[in-house]
Write a structure and sequence with these properties.
The protein has helices at about 1-25, 45-60, 60-65, 120-125, 160-180, 190-205, 230-240, 255-260, 265-275, 290-295, 300-315, 325-330, 360-370, 390, 395-410, 425, and strands spanning about 70-80, 85-90, 95-100, 130-135, 185-190, 210-215, 350, 375-380. The chain has about 450 residues and is of the alpha/beta class. The protein has one domain (about 50-310, about 340-410): Alpha/Beta hydrolase fold, catalytic domain (Rossmann fold), CATH 3.40.50. An 8-stranded mixed sheet has the order 1-2-4-3-5-6-7-8, with helices on both faces. α6 (about 190-205) links the parallel β5 (about 185-190) and β6. The longest helix is centred in the N-terminal third of the chain and has 25 residues, at about 1-25. The N and C termini lie far apart (about 60 Å). Bound molecules: 2-acetamido-2-deoxy-beta-D-glucopyranose (NAG) (4 copies). One 2-acetamido-2-deoxy-beta-D-glucopyranose (NAG) binds near residues 116, 117 and 118. Belongs to the AB hydrolase superfamily. Lipase family. Pfam families: Abhydro_lipase (PF04083). Keywords: Glycoprotein, Hydrolase, Lipid degradation, Lipid metabolism, Signal. One of its GO terms (molecular function) is hydrolase activity, acting on ester bonds.
Length: about 450
Amino acid sequence: MLLLQVWNFKHLLLFYAVLNITLWLANSQFIDEDEDDSGEDETPEEKAERKSIEEDSYLTVDKLIAKYGYPAEVHQVTTEDGYILTMHRIRGKQGAQPFFLQHGLVDSSAGYVIMGPNVSLAYLLADNNYDVWLGNARGNRYSRNHTTLDPDGKKFWEFSWHEIGIYDLPAMIDYVLKTTGFKRLQYAGHSQGCTAFFVMCSMRPEYNKKVIMMQALAPAVYAQETEEHPYIRAINLYFNTLVGSSITEMFHNEFRFLCRMTEETERLCIEAVFGIVGRNWNEFNRKMFPVILGHYPAGVAAKQVKHFIQVIKTGKFAPYSYSTNKNMLLYKEREPPSYNLTAVTVPTYVYYSKNDLLCHPTDVEAMYADLGRPIGKYLIPQKEFNHMDFLWAINVRRLVYARMMQVLGKYKDRRNNASVYPTPKDATKPDGGDSKEVK
Ligand SMILES: *[C@@H]1O[C@H](CO)[C@@H](O)[C@H](O)[C@H]1NC(C)=O
Ligand SMILES: *[C@@H]1O[C@H](CO)[C@@H](O)[C@H](O)[C@H]1NC(C)=O
Ligand SMILES: *[C@@H]1O[C@H](CO)[C@@H](O)[C@H](O)[C@H]1NC(C)=O
Ligand SMILES: *[C@@H]1O[C@H](CO)[C@@H](O)[C@H](O)[C@H]1NC(C)=O
């Protein structure tokens, strides 16, 4: 109990530290807006909207999907190493092509639905006649269960995105294929949803055959440039003190309460998020902030974060590095050998942006060049576009998903004929041209 107290106290301290740093960094750029006295004289429509947003902040993903009139299902999948994962599904019509969506770090399946049916990707795909399956990685709020391990114990949390790649994704993909009777599925990932995918394809290459195409949104893979990130050093120091634990409880109710206390604390909280992912007020739907607070962070193991920090510091996309002795034992080398991106033979289309503090364009382009079968890359034509805008931006459909639908459409009727995809060499020319149209 005492430990728990200290624990929360530490989290609060970190939170204040981040807020303060952010305030200090952002101070010079603050634009004073007139305070608007909402609340008292809100119209019935505004009140209904506020209530609906409040509701969206606590509904689980399946309930959210059902609320907006789509057929929702919940499925449980058990991995080879015993983790029990929850998948959410927006069931498509008979014979609809399965489309698998995998979330990023501290996120869950919620990331693909919370902005609602007019914005979020899961609904767009459902409207385009796909059978949409939403994965949940081990450790997040929907996948906090195991056949033998206790999620409140230390052993449960001994994993990073390496295990998500070699166990969770294969288990979920096999489950979807078995349930639907399809041989292959479409895949899109955001951030760590790409990282884990590339781990899977390089470590278990037989899974390349099960995926038609990969849409990689803000792929966090190479991260040399991220070393310049203002918070990485602080986060690194913080995580070095945690061994094999969950950081789900990191932002508990105090945090949510603080963030919604006043206009000003809300603004500071949003600035804190921007400090990590990149600043873009224009695309941020502030009305939806309570919903974001309700669904993030969804739970993550400290080792996942530490593993990313290793990638940043070593400049190598490689498995987790332990002590030299343990590395010798596990990998037969002093340092773990890099993942082999050439072995990723799924045709991959990449979406990235200039103001993404976690995936620098230079890193994304370096990764793209190393992929086994890149078929195009698209730099979002808005220079402030940040890491979370790929899911949250007000205009994400126009700025990102419209292109994705074009790419999917282009290969749709020929999806069983691999020879229609450009070869890696072609891909850097015709389709790839950064902001050219696909056609
Ligand atoms: C989606 O957009 C339509 C048309 O603009 C609007 O009528 C509807 O209320 C919107 N739905 C939501 C959930 O915002
Ligand atoms: C965890 O999984 C077990 C075995 O399937 C199940 O009996 C139990 O209800 C699950 N626990 C939670 C919290 O979902
Ligand atoms: C990487 O994968 C490619 C394609 O499967 C293979 O030809 C190459 O030898 C691999 N490289 C290493 C270092 O294992
Ligand atoms: C695949 O597409 C290529 C080029 O369009 C064509 O030559 C080939 O016959 C096709 N193969 C099959 C099995 O449809």
